[in-house]
Amino acid sequence: MNKTLKVYIGLLILLFVVVILIDFSKPKPINWSPTYNELHKRPYGTFILYDQLANLFNNSKVNNIKVTPYEYFDDLYNWEDSTYNTSGTYMLVNEHADIDEVSAQELLDYASHGNDVFISSNYPPSKILDSLSIDIKNQYNFKGKAELNFTNPIFTRDSIVIEKGLSNYYFSELDSMVTTVLGYQKFDSINRVNYIKVKHDQGNIFLHLQPVVFTNYHLLKKDNKKYVAAVLSYLKDDTIHFDSPNKTGANLSKSPLRFILSKPALRNAWWLALASLVLFMIFNAKRRQRIVKIIKPLENSTIAFTKTIGNLYYETKDHNTIIDKKITYFLEHLRRGFFVNTELLDDKFVKNLSLKTNKNREEIQSLITLILNLRAKNNCTESDLLKLNKAIEDFYTK
Question: Rounded CA gap, 117 and 241, in Å?
Fold first, then answer.
């Protein structure tokens, strides 16, 4: 390794060190992505809510659901007496309720046995909405902050005002026979329903359309926790079945190398191979072979000779000879390329050539007529030559 290469490598290492030091010295940016994950302490995680559920429901046990609701409650269903081996409240807090139709039907069945289902989402599962005759709309154009309040006068002091992460989904159609309106959200002095309780057989389904109030950011703002406590006060003090976004298998790496990186021996071999490849590239960066001299290929003298002969005929204005040769070459091309007989250039020839070349019959007829006319003409002009050349070139290119 020569001195120059050592200097370059040293500068490269120094550059990497400087970049790493600058990166570590920067303050860690806040991740504002809405995850609604009970393990995340970022602004839009639900760590505080999940941590405080045991305090909000003193006599309740909190179970974390890490499979689909169907898998979870189906295992707890007693087929002998058609009852569930558990009771309490199913709870889901997420921006989008990612629940399939089978799981949604399972939740309806669970509620019909005298249990509660609480879903806080911008748009609950369509299966549940259709079953309960509920429709939701979204008012996209809204400004500023919103006031969240309750219909029950007991919770008058628990109303709050929020302005970050809002959505304006609201209930536009309800079945008044089985639905109780519990809360509103007010945008621009317009009150819209955002919290309801729906009676479903022996149980209840609670739907709330502003899940952002349950996130860490809003629970730590002012007295927003009192609103959350009031929302959850409608639920029974029984087992809480909390639907976690951390489903079984969801945390697996999606990298194609996940198996290699999961095994210590394979992982070490992988990094060793990468390091060896980098070292090989560094030490073989210098060209070892001498520069190969470029040798120009011999010119095709046949083409040059043909151009010379063509120019000679053209300069002597022997247009008949050039036209005759171009026609001869063109007909030879037709014989070799399309296997047609060019002895008699009649209508049958034109028809066969049109079928074999898939070209317009009128255009071919025009070209053949031109060839026949020029063959019969004694004194051809330069204009005749140019016209023939254009017609033949059009045949080749079109």
Answer: 9
The low-confidence residues of the chain, meaning pLDDT below 50, are 252
Burial class (CB in 10 A: 0-12, 13-18, 19+), 118: buried
> Can you tell me the distance from the alpha carbon of 392 to that of 190, in angstroms, rounded to the nearest whole number?
78
Distance from C-alpha of 350 to C-alpha of 361, rounded to nearest angstrom: 7
- Please enumerate in sequence order all residues whose Cβ is within 8 A of that of 307, keeping only pairs 6 or more positions apart, or say none: none
The pLDDT assigned to 312 comes to: 64
Question: What local confidence, expressed as pLDDT, does residue 144 receive?
Answer: 73
Rounded Cα gap, residues 367 and 59, in angstroms = 98
pLDDT of residue 159: 95
What whole-number distance in Å separates Cα of residue 388 and Cα of residue 83? 94
Count of Cβ atoms closer than 10 Å to residue 16 Cβ: 10
* pLDDT value of residue 398: 74
Instruction: Give the DSSP H or E segment for 72.
Output: helix 69-75
Q: Which contiguous run of DSSP H or E holds residue 119?
A: strand 116-120
In the chain, the domains with their CATH numbers are 3-28+252-283 (no CATH), 47-243 (3.40.50), 304-397 (no CATH)
**Cβ count near 110 (within 10 Å):** 28
Query: What is the per-residue pLDDT for 373?
Result: 87
What pLDDT score was predicted for residue 357?
85
